[in-house]
Amino acid sequence: MDKIFEITAKEVTVQVKDERTGVVYSRTLPIDYYENANVLKLSGENLDGSSSSIVFYSARGIERLKDLTGRGADHDSCGTHKPEDQ
Predict the structure, then answer these.
(1) pTM
(2) How far apart are alpha carbons 68 and 65 in whole angstroms?
């Protein structure tokens, strides 16, 4: 089986269990879903029709984001930099 590096979908199914009654409800919603090792992103429309997204970062994703913005640890993660380059 091939390794999966990302998951995408044009709709999601939400399943909830009501705390009071114990009844399980399931709804399929028109929400775009994107997930990889760094992030899970849900996108859809607001009540006024404008685009809206919610993004959840994994611990790995947060570290990569810090590295990209210059806030990460000063270390050579790929092993190709000389000490004077750091």
Answers:
(1) 0.67
(2) 5
